[in-house]
Amino acid sequence: MEVITVRRDFLGGLDVETRRLRPGESITFGRGAAGMPVDLRLDDPAVSQEAGVLSAVKDYWEISNLSRRHAYVVENLEGGGFVRLTPGTVDAPIPFETARVRVPGLQDQLTFLVLAPLKRRLATEHDTAGPLPSYPPYPLDPGATYFLVLTALCEPQLRDPGSDVVPSVLQIRHRLAPTGLSRSAVDYHVDFLAGAKFRLQPPGQVRGIDWRPCAVVRHALRFGLVTRAHLVLLPPL
Prior knowledge:
By secondary structure, this protein is α+β, with helices and mostly antiparallel strands. About 20% of the residues lie in helices and about 25% in strands.
């Protein structure tokens, strides 16, 4: 890691305050107080005076939750889930390159962004020196219609990693209306993703419940098969 950038972000827009850290450097965040200054101030009476510490390490970053009462959440803004920090968690390693840290406040959640370019990588199928896999486990074509449906299914959680919203087949049909897909076509592609592409099995006791959309979204995001970069494939909102 060369430099990580921390920005206050109160969801309505980025604050101009930024901090840049090199490996070995740390900042504190919290409400602060006389005789207890913090580097990143979160001005809310429900936030601890010294709520936590964020540290840059060579190939990742760490965060500590110094609160005795409240859990914090670190969201992967690239669509790969989140990490929950229980009170008293110290030096939790975070592998996300683009993350939002949520700290609960009295009126709303206070947040800040962490932008951490992680440089070290193992060889992948795109590296000339690396071995090519025989077959990808989940072969997906971003230009195919089923991938468009997959992206629309994952859109709410890609845009807000803290969301658990999964659109219904009918909602996907409305979202993709400019493409002319019918409801039955959307349903076919959801079924194709669940069965042929991801080889998912229905859980027990699901009578009258369409388990496929939630299972497809959970699987795709868990393995990073669709990311925020794919949102450009969707019709404009």
